[in-house]
Amino acid sequence: MQVILGYLAFFLIFFSLQIFFFRLFRININKPSIILFFIIISAIIGFYFFSIDLLLNLIIINLTIICFYTLVPGIINYGPGLEIIDLIANKKINKENMLKKYFLKGKVSRSVEKRLQINISSNLVKLNKGKLVLTKNTINMLNIFRTIKKIYKIKSDAY
Amino acid sequence: MLTKLNIIVIFLPFLSVFVSSILFLIFQKISNKNYLLNLIVSFLIMFFLILVITYKFSSNITDREIFYLIFTYICAFYLFMCLIQSQVSSLQLTILRMIYLYPGISKREVLKKYNAGNIFKTRIERLKSGGIIYKKNSSFFIKNNKIILYLNFTKILKKIFSIS
Lengths: 159, 164
Fold this sequence. Notes:
- The complex is a heterodimer.
- Helices cover about 70% and strands about 5% of the residues of chain A.
- By secondary structure, chain A is mainly alpha-helical.
- Chain A has three domains: about 1-75; about 80-120, no CATH class; about 125-160.
- In chain A, helix 1 runs parallel beside helix 3 (about 50-75) and helix 2 (about 30-50) packs antiparallel against helix 3 (about 50-75).
- Chain B is mainly alpha-helical.
- Chain B has seven helices and two strands; from the N terminus they run H-H-H-H-H-H-E-E-H.
- Chain B has two domains: about 5-90, no CATH class; about 130-164, no CATH class.
- In chain B, about 75% of the residues lie in helices and about 5% in strands.
- Chains A and B meet through helix 1, helix 3, helix 4, helix 5 and helix 6 of A and helix 1, helix 3, helix 4, helix 5 and helix 6 of B.
């Protein structure tokens, strides 16, 4: 019980920090640099105060931080699938043509533009004289993803 | 000093996720069911195995180690799930794939090729094939109510984060 309470305390502090920074300053603290910072700090702490309990706690803390890194963007950038479900379930818009009309009117209809902007601001894509060019790291990342897609026989939207 | 049991405890959740990923691969190859169901089944099989192992060795391992085994497996599998899910429905990734296919494409061309109309069409198809919605007389209805739980969870988080 004490173990769970200890973890809950950490979780609540970390979650409150997320809310504090996002609500007040619109800063998403889930960044690769923050994760790297925590991993380095954890490695140093783990090395100097070595004990199995501490090691397990550090792994749990770092995994939680990485999970937040993948969870929060999904909350900030609401997906089109959820928007459709929201329209059907909560707003009771069931007719196909009406559903499409409301979907196209909504914020999610501009999501491609928004995601493209995120890709540019996070240096995954570079804008060169009005043309979009992928960086070398992005190409490597896409090759890895393509391999995963092939291995697991996953179908995606595009190509 | 780390004992043999300590090392097993540390690596067991990660090893379990690796085995789950192989199970998922096998299910994907042999079954025609949707990927999400295959993911859930592969998760549950290994989760059950971890619970059995924990129960069998409960006298040799501490409460902290039991919590670590269960929690780390859930977290690590969640990350694996995100990796698979991003292949299916990540808009960001789709846009990157499009630029990869058409190097030097302009912003306007991307928006022309992959617009809200296309997204609507593909998402409706996916929701239908995933058994989440169904069509009856040109109207759509929710088939699987569990998705509403997830929708409400996201909405609560959006409210907490004050996202309009």
